[in-house]
Specification:
Elements (H helix, E strand, L loop, with lengths): L14 H9 L9 E8 L10 E5 L7 E3 L5 E5 L6 E7 L6 E8 L5 E3 L2 E3 L11 E4 L21 E4 L9 E18 L14 E7 L6 E7 L9 E3 L8 E8 L9 E4 L1 E7 L6 E6 L4 E2 L3 E9 L5 E7 L8 E3 L3 E5 L4 E11 L4 E11 L14 E4 L6 E8 L3 E9 L1 H6 L6 E8 L4 E8 L2 H9 L5 E11 L4 E10 L1
Parallel strand pairs: 1-7, 1-8, 19-25
Antiparallel strand pairs: 1-4, 2-3, 2-5, 5-6, 9-11, 10-16, 11-14, 11-15, 11-17, 12-13, 12-15, 18-20, 20-23, 21-22, 21-24, 24-25, 26-27, 27-30, 28-29, 28-31, 31-32
């Protein structure tokens, strides 16, 4: 590989700056007011359907909901005043207040709010069962409704080996980072009925349980959302069980809990996608534009990292998926883009990019049939080269086996058909890439590799033809 030219830019973009740029409100709105985005604190994804209330000088307090892009907007607010925001997330997310927000006098103010998902909320897809739901109006569901005005009351007369227990099936397996317990008494019971001793167990399958946390809450915890960190058994958790071991007052006939919340993160899936050069032919000392096409369903993409010479070190970072670069020397460069998401996941894609020196002398190609050669496949890419004695037409076709097409539910077996022409006698090179639609079908079918039948043909102006059939395995 040729020595890389001096790199033009080597400064990496800070993640914090990227987040601010990603959350900046889009579109111009004139007048006085407040706008911003409500996002998921763990993934960076914007949340639609959150309820936002402005508590300032206006009566009644204005309310708004976030749109499909997670944005809220208040207009017509009194300028040069201050107030607070009360944000209630969509179903399954927590709520948050932001105080002491000063409105600017001559423009829209901006306040972004990040909310955590409460995985135990039944409104967000969790399901729950309890072995004591006998107190009318104070069943276990009231401890999982994100409303601390209600609560669960269970009898304090359970035997020690079968305490009142609330078992929650989370919507998916997560890493538990925090639990929030409000042990305040409910249903008009005496304050001493508040939860005292407790145990939290977790499970991946609902059958085998491990103790994640055990402790005692005193009178100072009444009316307070106590944040607790699991001491063990916090990863791969699909089920959470809260056991009420005693009330704060030994004489209490019930044990009460106002709220239980479970916060954490689901396993991170790294971004996936492809990389391509915008022009079919690229020359030394000219601007070469590259574009990445990546998706990330469970997080926000923060930045794109570019390695232009294949040395394993990133030379430049961009906020967007496109970049321009200049190569000083001719050759084939292994170019890689690394795509970093909000949670730190990194997905990559690469191409072997040929940079041409138009002034270089081209060796005469012997008068013979075209030659076709292939490099070993790299990921979903197969580099192909031809050598022709005159202007040449190259065609390629990739076809799935009938068995594979049936397994991944492909509509047709032929997944790629390509035609290219050389500008004259000499060499031509192209990269055959497994289409993104086929990659998605393979991923959905949980296949990590696929073998396709490749037919490649090159025909020159003298009608001399070379055809190659081969099996190619992409991983």
């Amino acid at each position: 590989m040729p020595t890389s030219p001096r790199r033009t830019v080597k400064a990496l973009v800070l993640a914090a700056a990227v987040v601010l740029a990603a959350c900046a409100p889009a579109g111009a709105v004139t007048g006085h007011g407040l706008t911003g985005y409500v996002t998921d604190a763990d993934t960076g994804l914007r949340l639609a359907g959150a309820s936002v209330t402005w508590n300032g000088t206006t009566v009644p307090a204005p309310q708004a909901s976030t749109d499909a892009g997670g944005r809220y907007l208040f207009t017509g607010l009194d300028p040069s005043t201050s107030g607070s925001l009360a944000v209630v997330g969509p179903a399954g997310w927590d709520r948050q207040s932001v105080d002491a927000i000063a409105l600017p006098a001559a423009e829209l103010g901006n306040q972004n709010v990040a909310l955590h998902r409460d995985w135990a909320a039944t409104a967000g897809g969790a399901t729950a069962t309890a072995n004591d739901d006998t107190v009318a109006g104070c069943t276990s569901a009231a401890a999982l409704d994100n409303d601390r005005g209600t609560g669960w009351s269970a009898s304090a007369t359970h035997p020690a080996d079968d305490p009142p227990a609330l078992t929650i099936a989370l919507p998916q397996a997560i890493e538990v980072r925090q639990l929030v317990l409000d042990p305040t008494s409910a249903c008009g019971h005496d304050p001493g009925a508040a939860l005292g001793r407790y145990r939290v167990q977790t499970s991946s399958d609902g059958t085998t349980w491990a103790t994640a946390l055990e402790g005692t809450l005193g009178a100072d915890a009444r009316g307070v959302a106590s944040t607790l960190a699991p001491a063990a058994a916090a990863t791969g958790v699909r089920y959470v069980r809260l056991q009420l071991l005693s009330a704060q007052d030994p004489a209490a006939t019930t044990i009460d809990v106002r709220e239980l919340q479970v916060f954490g993160v689901a396993p991170n899936v790294a971004p996936v996608g492809t990389l391509a050069a915008e022009a079919p032919r690229n020359y030394i000392k000219g601007i070469v534009r590259l574009r990445a096409a990546f998706t990330d369903g469970d997080s926000t993409i923060l930045r794109y990292l570019w390695d232009f010479d294949g040395d394993g070190r990133y030379d430049q970072a961009t906020v967007g998926p496109g970049v321009a670069h200049v190569w000083a020397g001719a050759g084939t460069y292994h170019v890689t883009v690394g795509v970093r998401d909000f949670r730190g996941g990194l997905g990559t894609a690469a191409i072997d990019l040929r940079i041409i020196d138009p002034a270089a002398v081209v060796e005469t190609v012997p008068q013979r049939k075209p030659l076709i050669t292939f490099d070993p496949p790299i990921g979903i890419d197969l580099a192909t080269r031809i050598a022709c004695a005159s202007k040449c037409t190259f065609t390629a076709k990739m076809v799935l086996t009938a068995r594979t097409a049936k397994r991944i539910h492909a509509k047709r077996r032929a997944v790629l058909a390509m035609t290219r022409k050389t500008e004259g006698p000499g060499l031509g090179s192209w990269t055959l890439t497994l289409p993104n639609a086929t990659v998605k079908l393979l991923r959905k079918a949980k296949l990590k590799s696929v073998t396709v039948r490749l037919t490649a043909s090159a025909v020159d102006q003298q009608k001399r033809r070379t055809t190659v059939h081969r099996w190619v395995r992409f991983r």
